[in-house]
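Give me the fold.
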Amino acid sequence: MSDAHNEHQSAIKTPKQLIAAVVAGFLVPIICIVLLVQYVSNADKVGAGSAAQTPEAIAARLQPVADEGYTLKDASAPKQLQSGEAVFKAVCAACHATGAAGAPKVGDAGAWSGRIAQGESTLIEHAVKGIRAMPAKGGNPDLADAEVARAVVYMANQSGGKLKEPEVKAAPAAGAAAPAAADAGKKLYDSTCVACHGGGVAGAPKFGDKAAWAPRLKQGSATLYEHAIKGFQGKAGMMPPKGGSTAPDDEVKAAVDYMAAAAK
């Protein structure tokens, strides 16, 4: 009887053993939980449904804004000439598709027949330099003469003509740049001088108008430069100093040369 009682006797025999058993009962589960949390938290985690920290997402955020939605072009590369149809749709259609301002409407053989009879070179010259209500190059000085010529041929051939596509001279070799002065002159003309010289406003000689420029060209470059830089009061109108700009004298002279060259 005593042997059976001893076999079922508790292993805790002293108060110290009891305290140790109670403490272990609390500490062991806590230690297990802490170890489990550390194991789980050691892995790299991102919020659910988020990929903001992936290498791809980071690269996308660092990508230059200019690369998004823009097509970058090499400004020094040779200009790609537009087709006649493209120039017509972008520039000429404003008048020649509707017949506005007396422009011969594309497709109207009767309106174009007399003009086509003048010859291809005359048609192109009128389009490049302007005639009556039509501004030079349709009001877009950035167009190359070859682009204007292509547009003229396109419109004429859509209206009963059989003109030949104009030949385009080979572009300069890669790396061959236009003189800096010529570039500066055109830039100043496009940004400032065109306001008056593009349409003959305030008595200004119209860009490309040989008759209007002839007496001025006879005065010589020095006089033209002086009038452009210091301003000039003429019978038909006036020119403010530097066309109202703050451009350096050299750029003003370059703009004068650019306009004079177009009128020779």
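Residues 109 and 253 are 45 Å apart (CA to CA).
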